[in-house]
Amino acid sequence: MATQGEYLVRSSVNDSVELLRQLETCKALALRISQRMVAIGAGSLVGYPWPQGYTEADFVALYTALNTLPGLVVADGTRDKLFKLVSSIQ
């Protein structure tokens, strides 16, 4: 029977592995969105009927923000702590 400490560490490692996987997926999606915008270009937005309260500038700001996300969509220090736990315990 596992101790509470073993349970806590093992569960945290398993969840960290899953978190890293999902962060990598999120980063890939964000990259795909920004690459699509670069490939098609902002000019294609001319004449698009934006819903009330949302503008082309809002859309471009979103793609710009996604394009600047670091590493795995988390700060490098947080990413490094996740990798250290997983690589040390797993």
Our estimate of the beta-strand percent is under 5%
What characterizes the major β-sheet? none
> What general form does the structure show?
elongated
Mean pLDDT: 90
Order of helices and strands: HHH
The overall strand count is 0
Helix content: over 70%
**Structural class estimated from helices and strands:** mainly alpha
**Poorly predicted tracts of residues:** none
Describe this structure in a few short sentences.
It contains 3 helices and no strands.
Which structural traits does this protein have?
3 helices, 70% helix, 0% strand
Question: Mind explaining what this structure looks like?
Answer:
The protein has a domain at 25-38 and 53-90. It has helices at residues 4-40, 56-67, 76-89. With 90 residues, the chain is an all-alpha fold. The chain is elongated and about 65 Å long. The mean pLDDT is 90. The protein is built from 3 helices and no strands. Helix content is 70%, strand content 0%.
